[in-house]
Amino acid sequence: MEGGKRGEEAGPSSTAGSSSSSSLACGGGGGGDQRQEKQKEMNEKLSEVCGVVEGDEVEEEEDRDDDDDAKEDEVDAGFVPGPLVSLKEQIELDKDDDSLRRWKEKLLGCLESDLNGQMEPEVKFHSIGIISDEFGEITTPLPVDENQRGHALFTLREGSHYRLKLTFSVQHNIVSGLRYSNTVWKGGLQVDQSKGMLGTFAPQRESYVYTLDEETTPSGALARGTYMARLKFEDDDNRCYLELKYSFEIKKAAR
C-alpha cells in the first residue's frame, strides 16, 4: 500500500505541504526558534503533571477538546460551501471535447471507469508509521488490531528525532482541505494540541504517502513516561475520516 507518492508530490490536484505546528506525535516542523519556544511551552505543561496520577482517565480532557471543536464549528458556521458535484458529472459536461476531457482525467488523476457518480469523497487510511534514526521505521496497519489496543503504538527516547508517515487513498471525488488535529495528554492533563493541513487530493488508483516534517521529542525527567493521544482527520466540510486513539512512550536517553 506504500506505492503512492509523497504528499508534496501527490499530483497537480494536491496542494499538500507540511505546514503545521509542532507536536509530540504528529506535526510539521518550524524554525529553530519556534521549536525552542514549543519545547519551553511543553516543559511548562509537563511540570504541571507532577502530583497527578499517571493512570487517570482522559475522558474529562477529551470532553474539553470536544467543546473546543464545537466552538470552532460555530465560527465556521457562516461559511456555506458550494454544491457538491460528482467527478463523473464534471467529466461528462465536456464529453464532446476529447482534448478537454483527457486534460481533466490527467489533472484529476483518475479514469472515468473508476467513477460511479458518488458525490462525497471517501478517504481510507491504510497505515501510520514512525520513522526514526534510532530504529528505522515502524509501520502500524489501520485500523489498529484489537490485540494492539491498550499498548503503546511506539516508543521513543527523549530528545530523539522522528517523522510521522501516513498512507491513505482517495476515492469517488476530490477531498478538499484534508487536515488533522492531534491532542496529547499525560497523567490526565492535556500537554499538547496541534493542527495541520495536508492539502487537497484527487481520486487515484495508487495510495498517497505523506511524510510530515522532522520533530524532536521533549527531554528531561518530566518528559518521560506514557502519553495518551487522539488523532483526527477531517476535510473542509468537517467530514471525519479517521479518529485514532493511541498511546506512546518516551524513555530516558541512552548514555
Q: Can you describe this structure?
A:
With 255 residues, the protein is of the alpha+beta class. It is built from 4 helices and 10 strands, in the order ααααββββββββββ. The strands form 2 sheets. Strands 1, 2, 4, 7 and 8 form a 5-stranded antiparallel β-sheet that branches. The protein has a 5-stranded mixed β-sheet with strand order 3-10-9-5-6. β9 and β10 form a beta hairpin. The longest helix has 17 residues. The chain is elongated, with a radius of gyration of 20 Å. The N terminus is likely disordered.
Briefly characterize the structure.
The chain has 4 helices and 10 strands; from the N terminus they run ααααββββββββββ. The protein is α+β, with helices and mostly antiparallel strands and about 260 residues long. The radius of gyration is 20 Å and the shape is elongated.
